[in-house]
Amino acid sequence: MQSCINAESTFTPGDALSEASAHWYAVLTRSNFEKRVAWELGRRGVDHFLPMIRETHQWKDRRKVVDVPVFPGYVFVHMTDREQDRSHVLRSNGAVRILGSRAAIEPIPEMEIESIRLLLRSGVPFVAHPFLREGAQVRVKKGALTDLEGVLVRFKNDSRLVVSVKLLARSIALEIDVDDVEAL
Hints:
2 domains; 4 helices
């Protein structure tokens, strides 16, 4: 069972000029530090967003409902791309880096953040899925073809896995359910 929740701040920046140049960025966190980083960002007054889902986990002796990040290892921050803002975010315990390069961090389009928020507010059940695109190297993870590796060729209605023998410069293709493969 799964339900949607989210954690985000309601910080409102003081000057309108900063708000106009602010964008969303993804902060990479240490493993299992997403909640800690989000808490520290909120304490520091940084506008942030940590989308979470509520899941029921089963152990041998008990069941427990836990809140887990939709995107493990990441917290989104809304800030300007200034050195002082970067360092303010990165001083949070567990924050590793802001995605992008040292010279230029990479903003996330506002529409993508709003789409995630809309999905969470809707209450529609969903599951996280690995990002697969055509041309990705994949491995079959279940069924008769377990551990077979190839290239995902088509993703729309059917998924076609192509297995190539490079030495022979030949390939074979088969139809496979995209849920049965994982990215390499």
